[in-house]
């Protein structure tokens, strides 16, 4: 493998779409509390204060209206699909599917024996589609940002009585959203919130809480680990049903505090857009590269770039990895000659510029440098 000249290299080579870059300052902070926090009971006051700080911070970040609550639990955002199927969908859901993760929620709903077949509105990856207003559906669901493709969708209510349930996993902490336009905005913290995985958070409206309580009281069997009502009861005590990852909570708190101290969600979105704008401009000006997603839907946090047949994107990604620039491979199921970049707020714009310079160097020096 070729060795990229050191003077071209980014200071930090992590460009993954999740798990994503964790700021070194947050890692140092975690180390500083390692013996006082890690390995202690999550039912005791130090951890409860930590959870309370996160819940309050999320309410502040998104200016949650009165009655909205921050609920959390173990399992990650993928578990929340099952939670929603068990405790938020009464009879039938409608889904906007424009990538892998929106499709997985629709599949979970289709497999549930107690629900009618979901209504699925689907387009090919690279574009966006939302569920159409439909009184037969009591939940409308889609992703705010489809991590697999780098397509961002609007968040707005359908005009029906259905709950609006949004997967915010790769958008939360980087893209603004109006809480009046959703009933549930759920996400895991290992992307824009620059933490680790294993937890889910859900910003829930009074209507969503009422729905969950009504379904739970109806006699439908819901496992405790998939009960939004149980998760809420514990969240109100600033704890989770079972033991959470304390390092994930601490790193989440550190990123959330950093964003709030620097101006809130507008600061985070500005940093992410500065990063993705660099990549899209580079691709549009490149003879062999093209942004994959239609212009109106291009993500501010995840950029996917197609290459023509003159370029082997797999080889580029492999060589970058050999040089400690990691996780720029495309989503595996797309099967495209493509690179995908996670460009969340924790990623520095200068490192993005250097990343693109390294790719240019590889493309213009295919054989000049001997293998390392």
From TrEMBL:
Catalytic reaction(s) noted: 4-(phosphooxy)-L-threonine + 2-oxoglutarate = (R)-3-hydroxy-2-oxo-4-phosphooxybutanoate + L-glutamate; O-phospho-L-serine + 2-oxoglutarate = 3-phosphooxypyruvate + L-glutamate
Pathway stated in the Swiss-Prot or TrEMBL entry: Amino-acid biosynthesis; L-serine biosynthesis; L-serine from 3-phospho-D-glycerate: step 2/3
Name of a matching Pfam family: Aminotran_5
Segments forming domain Aminotransferase class V: 135-325
BP terms from Gene Ontology: glycine biosynthetic process, by transamination of glyoxylate; L-serine biosynthetic process; pyridoxine biosynthetic process
Keyword tags: Amino-acid biosynthesis, Aminotransferase, Cytoplasm, Pyridoxal phosphate, Pyridoxine biosynthesis, Serine biosynthesis, Transferase
UniProt name for this protein: phosphoserine transaminase
Taxonomic source organism: Propioniferax innocua
Organism classification: Bacteria, Bacillati, Actinomycetota, Actinomycetes, Propionibacteriales
């Amino acid at each position: 493998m070729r060795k990229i000249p050191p003077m071209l290299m980014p200071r930090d080579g992590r460009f993954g779409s999740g798990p994503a870059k964790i700021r070194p300052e947050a890692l140092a902070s975690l180390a500083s509390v390692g013996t006082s926090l890690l390995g202690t009971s999550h039912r005791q006051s130090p951890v409860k204060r930590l959870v309370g700080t996160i819940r309050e911070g999320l309410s502040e970040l998104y200016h949650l209206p009165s009655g909205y609550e921050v609920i959390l639990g173990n399992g990650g955002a993928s578990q929340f699909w099952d939670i929603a199927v068990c405790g938020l969908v009464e009879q039938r859901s409608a889904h906007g599917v424009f990538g892998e993760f929106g499709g997985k929620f629709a599949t979970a709903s289709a497999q549930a024996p107690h629900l009618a077949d979901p209504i699925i509105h689907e387009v090919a990856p690279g574009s966006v589609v939302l569920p159409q207003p439909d009184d037969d559906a009591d939940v409308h669901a889609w992703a705010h940002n489809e991590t697999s493709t780098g397509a961002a969708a609007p968040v707005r209510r359908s005009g029906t009585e259905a709950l609006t349930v949004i997967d915010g996993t790769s958008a939360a902490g980087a893209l603004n959203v109006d809480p009046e336009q959703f009933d549930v905005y759920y996400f895991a913290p290992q992307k824009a919130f620059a933490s680790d995985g294993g937890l889910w958070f859900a910003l829930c409206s009074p209507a969503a809480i009422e729905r969950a309580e009504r379904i739970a009281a109806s006699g439908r069997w819901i496992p405790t680990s998939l009960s939004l009502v149980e998760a809420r009861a514990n969240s109100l005590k600033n704890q989770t049903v079972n033991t959470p990852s304390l390092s994930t909570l601490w790193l989440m708190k550190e990123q959330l505090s950093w964003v709030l101290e620097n101006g809130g969600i507008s600061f985070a979105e500005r940093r992410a857009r500065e990063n993705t704008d660099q990549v899209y401009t580079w691709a549009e000006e490149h003879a062999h590269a093209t942004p994959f997603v239609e212009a109106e839907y291009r993500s501010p946090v995840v950029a996917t770039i197609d290459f023509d047949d003159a370029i082997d994107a797999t080889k580029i990604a492999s060589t970058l990895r050999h040089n400690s620039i990691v996780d720029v491979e495309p989503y595996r199921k797309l099967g495209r000659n493509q690179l995908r970049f996670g460009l969340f707020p924790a990623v520095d714009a200068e490192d993005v510029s250097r990343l693109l310079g390294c790719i240019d160097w590889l493309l213009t020096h295919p054989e000049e440098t001997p293998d390392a």
